[in-house]
Amino acid sequence: MPTLAEFCERVPKAEVHCHFVGAIPAEVAWRIAARNDVPLPADGPATLYRFDNFHQFIDRYMTVATALRRPADFAEAVYAVLQDGAEHGNVRYRELFFNPTDHHHASYPDMLTGLLDGIAAAETDLGVRCRLVPSINRMQSPQIGVQMVEQVVAHRRDEVIGIGLDASEPAGPPELFAEAFAIAGRAGLRRTAHACEDYAGLDGGPPRNATTCLDLLGCDRLDHGYNILADEAVVQRCRDAGVPFTCCLPGSNPVLRPARIESIRTMLELGLPVSLHSDDPAMHGANPGEVYTFAAEVLGLGIAEVGALALAAVDATWLDDTERSALRSEFQAEIDRLAGER
């Protein structure tokens, strides 16, 4: 009979808010950097992902990103990411963010080749499926975002299903990226954006950013979203439209505010379509199984609520209706089986 923690670990999961670089296990990042003679700001894998604030996190993240140089590096890293999720949380499906413009020493075609090779190998070996969501780094210029999306469209692959917008929200309000998102929309790509996020020691995005993402950028889901709670009209708009929110808990790293826990609690109580994801699991020290376990502990969730969160993540995916329905049925059957063991 599984305990609640064991149920949280074993319940099948879909993740649609997970960043490629932030999910690379430290030992794999260290090995790739050493192979490419790229110095990292640590004395070994054990200290590579130690940081005290958001700025240090971004600096460490960008350093690891620049260490990836060749298709084989991307293939090795993404395989490790998918293997780690499967082994530490039973992640069956991922829509993985990656920022092409953060990888300064690789062309988009080369990184795409490597990522797709690693994804194909993981599906064959592990049964884990993955799709890619190239994401604009909003700390770079809107024109760089336009150029990135043009590259994505020019080298279109079925496994690349949409685009995102991430990094420090105050540095790049969503309206600045309307042109890039319009290009993506015309190409038939799905769209999401980090909006109304919270930061330790920094102002987060205001509630109006959510409506800007929906109305101007054409997003059909939002990543994070906690700060919409400051505006009842925005909450009502999102609830009426059934906008999925891909939320992430702080895990063991103190960079993210504990207030996020209460925000997620309130969003669930208000009936918003919330799902839970690991964000940057390796760098933030919380794998998918730990995220669910932590959520159950701090939010007081039981088996039924944890199972509902797993299904909500499936509902938030960009799979077509047939694939989503099949995955949901697969998850529901396994959730029922696990719950029946208790």
UniProtKB/TrEMBL annotation:
Gene Ontology, cellular component aspect: cytosol
One Pfam family, short name: A_deaminase
Cross-referenced InterPro entries: A_deaminase_dom, Ado/ade_deaminase, Metal_Hydrolase
Reported cofactor(s): Zn(2+)
One function term, GO molecular function aspect: adenine deaminase activity
Ranges of residues in domain Adenosine deaminase: 12-331
Keyword vocabulary terms for this entry: Hydrolase, Metal-binding, Zinc
Domain of life: Bacteria
GO biological process, one term: adenine catabolic process
Family as reported in the entry's similarity comment: Belongs to the metallo-dependent hydrolases superfamily. Adenosine and AMP deaminases family.
Protein name, as recorded: Adenosine deaminase
Species annotation: Ruania alba
